Amino acid sequence: MRIAVVFAAVVLQFAASRPSIAADSGSYRFVDNWTTFPEGMTAWSSATGVDIDAKGNIYVFHRNPAMPIMAFDKDGRFLRAWGQNMFKTT
After folding, report:
1. pTM, two decimal places
2. Residue ranges of the chain whose pLDDT lies below 50
3. Alpha-carbon separation of residue 82 from 12, 51, 90 (angstroms)
4. Which among 89, 40, 53 has a CA at the least distance from the CA of 68?
């Protein structure tokens, strides 16, 4: 259940503005400031993928040439980033 809540928080954080949530949308809730970004980064770029591993770590693929793949623990602490200059985006 906690993984579902964290996943929902990550997905919602990518939105430019907080969407209204219908009353019957389940038990998900928005978590403001869930993550801490690494030095030099203050916001998400356009995210195209999110996944969670067996340990609950969250991986985000987004359109940032310096850190396109980022890993966070389930509490939002930045773990690592990789993929610099590996991907071409338009």
Report:
1. 0.61
2. 16-17
3. 23, 15, 19
4. 89
